[in-house]
Each structure stands twice: as structure tokens, then as C-alpha cells.
Amino acid sequence: MGNGRQGTGKRPAHLVWDWNGTLLDDNVAIIEATNAAFAELGLEPITLERYRDLYCVPIPRFYQRLIGRLPTDAEWLVMDAAFHQQYWARADACGLTEGAAELLAARWAAGLSQSLLSMAPHEHLVPIVRRHGITGHFVRVDGRTGPSHGSKAEHMVRHLTALRAVDPEISGERTVVIGDAVDDAVAAAAVGAKAVLYTGGSHSRASLAAAGVPVVDSLAEAVAVAEDLAG
């Protein structure tokens, strides 16, 4: 793959895209699945606005913010299972975020590299990305393996290591993570990469601002800012 900018003297960014809430517009499915998980413990449902104000990882800490205490291990297992069952029953009905498919296709056609890293389970992520017809736009697609209550940082380290095996020129300093959560910025920092956070997903703008990285309102703006950061 070419770098898309031969002769300009500027090295293009490698973009690592997030999936849920970034490329996939799944806010409704997320909040419905969260409320289904709460119902398992007899808890009151929450609004999307409250979710976006309080969301954080690890997820048990998010639940602590909502219910005033950490769930017990038994409660966590029940809530986590309920969430995933309800979410994946709804996920296929979710569309891509506006403009996402066109942005991905244009970058790929221009010879610019990009990959996908999600905390969605790998065995669920790969088929749904394929169904949206965008798998071929990424040099690598990785979902979460292992428990669902951790941070994205450890997965980002493995993701970038695997990318370098494909393209040794991909480095932390020219990598930009585009996501919708503060944890995406934390994961980027773990590999020496930069981050741009999108307001259309799991966090409110005020929550994202605390990460100390650029915050944008569209994926097109995210890509433009990412290229500036890598330049």
C-alpha cells in the first residue's frame, strides 16, 4: 500500500478506528441493553443523557457511579451476560455512523492505512463488520479477547505490535486513534499514539474534554484533525 502523499514530505497518519459509538451508530442498542442488565437486579432504567455523563471503564466502576456501589461478582456476571445477550440481539439493526462508509472507502482508495480495534468480542465483531461491507478497508480488525471488564490499553499494545508485523513503518508517533470514549485516549497514550474523540457515542462532550485531546462532532472532522496531528 502506498502512503498516498508521495512527494509532499508529510507522512500520513495510520488511523486506528473504534467500532461501537464511533463507526457503528449503536447508542440506542447500548442504552436498551444497559437497562435490560439493570432490570436483572431490579434497578431503575437510565436515560441516554445520564449514561453519556457517567460512562467510564472498567464497566463495574460505571455501574458503581450509577447504583452507588460496585456490583458483587455474582451481580456482575448476571448484568454482563444480560447486557451482551440484549445488545447482540439488537446490533444487526444498527447502521454505520453518517459518512463512515464513504470516509473509510476514500482513505483506502487513496492508499492510506487504517485498522479497527474494538472492545466488542472478536467473534461478534468480525461478522458484523463484514456484513457492513467494510472489512476490506482495514489492514487489520481486532476485537476483544478475554474478560469484558478491562481497559483497551492492553489490547492496543497487541494491536500495534501485530500491525508492525504487516507494515514496519506503522509507529506510535504516526498512529492516531479515533474513538468515542476517554478509554480510547488512554489506549492511544499506552502506545505513544495520539487520539481524537468523537462526541456522537458513549460520552458527553464535557466528559471527553477531560481527556485533554481534540474533541470533534463528526467523523470527517476527526479524520482531518488526525492528519494534522500526524503531520
Helix content: 40-55%
Largest sheet: 6 strands, parallel
Side-by-side strand order of the widest sheet: 3-2-1-4-5-6
SSE class: alpha/beta
Beta-strand content bin: 5-15%
**Amino-to-carboxy terminus distance:** 19 Å
Global geometry? globular
- Topology pattern, helix = H, strand = E: EHHHHHEHEHEHEHEH
What's the total count of β strands? 6
Radius of gyration: 17 Å
Average of pLDDT:
92
Which residues form runs of ≥5 with pLDDT under 50?
1-8
Provide a count of the helices: 10
Protein name: HAD family hydrolase
Organism: Streptomyces mauvecolor
Pfam family, one: HAD
GO molecular function: hydrolase activity
Folded structure, characterized:
The protein has 231 residues and is α/β, with parallel strands linked by helices. It is built from 10 helices and 6 strands. It is 46% helix and 12% strand. β2, α6 and β3 form a beta-alpha-beta unit. The chain has a 6-stranded parallel beta sheet, sandwiched between helices. It is globular and about 55 Å long.
